[in-house]
């Protein structure tokens, strides 16, 4: 696989503050690459440099073989960008927004018209194509700007928090679209705060913290890398005293998650046997019982807590 994004020693200073500190990474053709980080870690600044919105203090970015500093227009022609906040013109209709994007990228009308029809249909917006965007809900606007980013049939799609604040159906549609684009050979650069989303969609993820890359790898490999405790997740037919469960043998920690209780342990078999004995002693029924390994969220928390 060839690299379609190459970042070398990328750095950005703001008034004496180093927001991004000499980072290096590559994104391979056809992969979904997740870019994760806590607020203030340098994630947004990095994405803005990769898409040519701001210039780096030093370092370089290459997109589809074009140096972004020397050939910004050629590099940007290969991209589609979905910002976190809508960049659609609210006074224009959905249709006119799409045609405006086509004109910006030099897409001929004979291509732009059927492509707009296809995208509006895919995102369930065709019936509202002639309505002003100011009448759209947040979810509809998000679907529209995603469609706008695809009007130039980009090689690389930058998605910045694409499902933030969306209802379940709209978020699912966006995620399915990501999978379809990947199958079609597109490269996706995805920023998200949803760890489950990153774990489900991404071939690899990079975690940035304090302006530096803390880790880059496939989600499952990152989970294996941190090792540590497994946890047993259980729920009962009635409320229980969590302190009783924390006193079971082999338990290193306990936390609640809704109606479920998560027990951290390096002896899951012993923990499960203890839970069964506990339920019998108090005449309880176990509703769910699962043994789980560390999640991408656990990896994220561990790496971003380290200084």
UniProtKB/TrEMBL annotation:
Protein name: Vitamin B12 import ATP-binding protein BtuD
Stored InterPro entries: AAA+_ATPase, ABC_transporter-like_ATP-bd, ABC_transporter_ATP-binding, DrrA, P-loop_NTPase
Primary localization: membrane
GO biological process assignments: daunorubicin transport; doxorubicin transport
Family under the similarity heading: Belongs to the ABC transporter superfamily. Drug exporter-1 (DrugE1) (TC 3.A.1.105) family.
Pfam families per UniProt: ABC_tran
Lineage: Archaea, Methanobacteriati, Methanobacteriota, Stenosarchaea group, Methanomicrobia
Organism: Candidatus Methanogaster sp. ANME-2c ERB4
GO cellular component: plasma membrane
NCBIfam families assigned: drrA
This protein's UniProt keywords: ATP-binding, Cell membrane, Membrane, Nucleotide-binding, Translocase, Transport
Superkingdom classification of source: Archaea
Limits of the ABC transporter domain: 5-235
GO molecular function, one term: ATP hydrolysis activity
Subcellular location: Cell membrane
